[in-house]
Amino acid sequence: MSEALLKVEGLKVSYGHIEAVKGIDFELREGEITTLVGANGAGKSTTLLALSGLVKKAAGRVRFDGRDLSGMAPHRIVQSGVVQVAEGRATLTTLTVRENLELGAYTRGEGSAQRLRDLDYVYGLFPRLAERADGLAGNLSGGEQQMLAIGRALMAKPRVLLLDEPSMGLAPIIVQDIFRTLRTINQAGLTIFLVEQNVRQALKIADRGYVLETGSIVLADSGQALLGNPRVQEAYLGS
Ligand SMILES: Nc1ncnc2c1ncn2[C@@H]1O[C@H](COP(=O)(O)OP(=O)(O)OP(=O)(O)O)[C@@H](O)[C@H]1O
Ligand SMILES: [Mg+2]
To answer: In the Cβ-directed half-sphere of 186, how many Cα atoms lie within 13 Å?
Structure first.
């Protein structure tokens, strides 16, 4: 069994009087896809923001590869290898696809030969981006923008990739395409934490899953077991 690469203990986040995340524990095992699923307002995005250091934790610790990320600044968290994919529409629309990807590598300061290899890797994963490399990101479809956002995060050479609802607003066929690519990236060794409201698709590709309800984790199991769990089926899979 693989070990926990990232471990969260007792995480609480509040917005004023609202306790959005109420003391949760979970872990991401190295080389696995872990998903956090839940309904609207359950606290999924808040959990991701806390991992990235973008909201203040009321309590709790985040340990990553033996280090304590709990009080670390967001850019240091990225440099340490925990990289969140920007929301699909957050690509820089007045830059080209290639320029957006190159920006992803900005925090690393490696030589241009390595950057070119990384660009090739991303273009191999997303041939559509290669075709549109010199076009403006603003002219991409929603699905292509999501691919670009993932590609840009990969250019930062993450050890853990965080995604907040990459399926949002996309046609089912595009969602399948994106999830298939996440699987490919994972099989190349990358640890992935996927936050989703699309419970069925997320559990299908995940090794492990956690179900979040109003700020608390109510179920934790393998993706397969959760897909077969009657409580999950009734609440989230419409059966
Ligand atoms: N900036 C904020 N200020 C105040 N309350 C907030 C803020 N952001 C989120 N909340 C509240 O915190 C709770 C959790 O929100 P969060 O966005 O983390 O949920 P979510 O699971 O990501 O939902 P969704 O599926 O809609 O993206 C909700 O009750 C939400 O209204
Ligand atoms: Mg959200």
So the answer is: 23
CA 217/CA 107 separation, integer angstroms: 34
List, run by run, the mean pLDDT of 10-residue segments along the chain (239 residues): 88 97 98 97 97 96 95 94 82 87 78 85 96 94 93 95 94 93 96 96 97 98 97 91
Establish whether residue 18 lines the binding site of ligand 1, counting it when its CB lies within 6 angstroms of any ligand atom: yes
Ligand 1 centroid from CA 22, angstroms? 13
The backbone torsions φ and ψ at residue 149, rounded to the nearest 5 degrees and listed phi first, read -65, -40
Q: Hey, whose CA ends up nearest to atom 4 of ligand 1? A: 15
Quote the pLDDT of residue 9. 97
CA-nearest of 186, 189, 173, 168 to 223 is 186
Q: Separation of 103 CA from ligand 2 center, angstroms?
A: 25
Atom index in ligand 1 nearest the CA of residue 38 equals 21
Strand locations in 41-182 (E): 59-64, 67-68, 82-84, 160-164
Q: Whose CA is nearest to atom 12 of ligand 1?
A: 20
Determine if the pTM surpasses 0.90: yes
Per DSSP, the three-state class of 167 is coil
E strands present in 65-215: 67-68, 82-84, 160-164, 191-196, 208-213
The token duo for 89 is: 């529409």
Its sign, for the CA torsion 15, 16, 21, 23, is positive
The rounded distance, in Å, linking the Cα atoms of 55 and 36 is 18
